[in-house]
Amino acid sequence: MSIRDRACVVGVFEHPTRKADNISLAQLHAEVARGALADAGLAKDDVDGYYCAGDAPGLGGLSMADFMGLRLRHIDTTETGGSSYVVHVAHAAEAIAAGRCNVALITLAGRPRAEGMATGTAPRSYGPTSPDVPFEAPFGPTVVNQYAMAAMRHMHEFGTTSEQLAWIKVAASHHAQHNPHAMLREVVTVADVVGSPMISDPLHRLDCCVISDGGGAVIMARPEIAKSLKRPRVTLRGAGEAVKHQMGGQVDLTYTGARWSGPAAFESAGVTPADIKYVSIYDSFTITVLITLEDLGFCKKGDGGRFVSDGNLIAGTGRLPFNTDGGGLCNNHPANRGGMTKVIEAVRQLRGEAHPAVQVKNCDLALAHGTGGSLGTRHASATVIMERS
Amino acid sequence: MAAARSIPAPTPTPETAPFWEAAAKGKLLVKFCTACGKPHHYPRGICPFCNSDRTEWRESAGRGTIYSFSVMRRASPPYVLAYVTLEEGVTMMTNLVDCDFDALRIGQPVHVVFSPTDGGPPVPNFTPR
Predict the structure, then answer these.
(1) Model-level pTM?
(2) Residues near B53 by beta carbon (within 8 Å), at least 6 away in sequence
(3) What is the CATH number of domain B17-128?
(4) Which residues of A touch B93 (CB under 8 A)?
């Protein structure tokens, strides 16, 4: 079953908070849902499908449906870490195309900052029943040193440099200066990035994304419903998802699951990378963006360093404007899960509602990509291609 | 050279207990599948390549090369997370220990050393040869 043109994004909302000391997790989910419904011009009772992931409290979708008073005939709580919400966009389109729901709500929220979580530098363990844990946890894998190993290998094989990685942060900061909600609004230089403290070789502090509270929501609906609403129409054209892991010990850190999710998305959308006007690329770290752009086919494998250099990702001057909200690197990485905000900024661009300073001209086709888990071990890659109707 | 890091104990499962029992004797084991002939890591009872349950333990020579690594400068004490590719053909997550962190490089030959954990079996770490 093709999902091309079978579902539209009709509402989006990004919570303005970046530190939610006085808002509960469930309330954050409800607030982003309310915001996206208002954006769409729909009412709560129009929602008959709901999507959330591991960030939702309690029994996930059940607890949140109870809390928000949703009456559902379809529920999907696929958990792929930070890429979950990009996966959800595709799954919601499939459900809508199959007639299983008319209006699907997707929510994300979290409070890692209010809770004082050492997101990147403290080892996370999923408990001894996770089969990988006894063979990894003793060695102190954290988010940052796992991604750092991918960066190290990329540098070794392709000659990628810290300065090239830094250009990704520089581009994000150029965009974030226009976003009043962004955590880091100061424009930085390559020298600033490579001069910032080393966290885990070769990733510096400014190679890392922010830690922020907040959340976001997306509402998808049948095209007939989208046509009845007053907002600019954004249609899902294609999608792809893939899981990459250690392959039984045949570890290769030079590519991501985007190598598979990207071509699947382009094929289902019937377009090529050259057709894309704007990209939202998951940017947990600078290296995440570089490897993903290669895998999606925006440049050849190994050429990512050259491709991102010299402002090529900066809106208005670069060839491929990316993350014009400032991305996870400068704006927001709510719940340590960046997939949702990737979808939201792509929708803003397609609607012509990005900040005027970063709005891409004639932005009719955009790609959003999520990475959930770790490039160093196992992750899910999800790609969606959306079109202004 | 930094002070040793406190290492959380691994929890053996019924299928992986022989790996940890061998580790306690200073031996590194690798799982091989006798159906497809391929080694895999981390060890499983069912081959992740061909799905056969005909897997067996073999002792590794304990030699390999650094596939990638990162010095976690932010930690106290700093430590080195790494992937080492064994001569037997699998790449495993580990730490690089007893070495000058600033002199490490990808491709460097290393050999296994076992490091004690907090109340559990020792874990295989590696040090330059």
Answers:
(1) 0.97
(2) B45, B46, B47
(3) 2.40.50.840
(4) 135-136, 139, 141, 377
Query: Considering chain A, what percentage of its residues have pLDDT values greater than 70?
Result: 100
Q: Mean pLDDT over residues A26-48, rounded?
A: 98
CB contact (8 A) between residue A248 and residue B40: yes
Domain ranges of chain A: 8-116+209-388
| 3-class secondary structure, A315 | coil
Q: Number of A:B CB contacts under 8 A?
A: 124
Q: How far is B27 from chain A (nearest CA, A)?
A: 15
List CB contacts (< 8 A) between A140 and chain B: 5, 72, 75, 79, 81, 95
Average pLDDT of chain A, as a whole number: 97
Each domain of chain B, given as residue ranges in start order, spans 17-128
CA distances from A36 to A100, A182, A337, A359 (A): 21, 19, 18, 21
pLDDT tens string A340-365? 999 999 999 999 999 999 999 999 99
Q: What is the ipTM of this complex?
A: 0.97
Whether A363 contacts A347, CB under 8 Å: no
Give CA torsion, residues B55, B13, B22, B77, to 10 deg: 120
CATH 3.40.50.2000 describes domain A8-116+209-388: no
- CB contacts under 8 A, A 122-151 vs B, are 125, 128, 131-142, 144-146, 148-151
pLDDT for A91: 98
CB contact under 8 A, A136 and B12: no
